[in-house]
Hints:
Layout: H1 8-16, E1 22-26, E2 29-37, H2 40-47, H3 56-63, E3 72-84, H4 95-104, E4 107-114, H5 116-119, E5 123-125, E6 131-133, E7 144-149, E8 162-168, H6 169-178, E9 193-195, E10 211-213, E11 223-228, E12 232-238, E13 248-253
Parallel strand pairs: 3-4
Antiparallel strand pairs: 1-2, 2-3, 4-11, 5-13, 6-9, 7-11, 7-13, 8-10, 8-12
Amino acid sequence: xxxxxxxxxxxxxxxxxxxxxxxxxxxxxxxxxxxxxxxxxxxxxxxxxxxxxxxxxxxxxxxxxxxxxxxxxxxxxxxxxxxxxxxxxxxxxxxxxxxxxxxxxxxxxxxxxxxxxxxxxxxxxxxxxxxxxxxxxxxxxxxxxxxxxxxxxxxxxxxxxxxxxxxxxxxxxxxxxxxxxxxxxxxxxxxxxxxxxxxxxxxxxxxxxxxxxxxxxxxxxxxxxxxxxxxxxxxxxxxxxxxxxxxxxxxxxx
Length: 254
């Protein structure tokens, strides 16, 4: 299936029970969708409860960092390998997919890839370990990033040894406060870069506070991740410190 498509019916069913995956059809394709981190505010509130005596919303208000994700990370797993046209040649993002990113943060497509023409766009990059950052400023016309694993590329067809981590700005801020490197009294708004979790057990936060895009689907599987640099931070996570993984595909869309 190529081109623009409507994923909203799948999401509508998923929202009836956000804790369980939902399998349905997009045209002739079977697709399973799920939220990677359901009830995200509850996860944040539980982990940072000592920093949130007035509640999460009070922290959002006082920090000046917007936050509106009830569910975080929307994943679509295609039963068969599928070509997707997420953006046009002018780097305009599909409006329906953009709406999903605005509501749920990262949007992940597994067993999916971009067209040959689109795969040649953009560049490749390897992000620093646990250095959470943004790639675009809010003033740039292409604030969304699409990260991609090309199933037809000899290197990227292999599972990757490093993850991409994604988290909401408010989580990066709270972790910074927890680690004592942010002053909540004087610091307002999100930074463009945070070094976090360096001495922490990541198992306590992965897919609870921080989405772990492991790029570990079987050989020859395409994977795509859309994220908004205005509201999210991302970093690499070297699961094996000696292996940084290949450079992942990156392009900017608006």
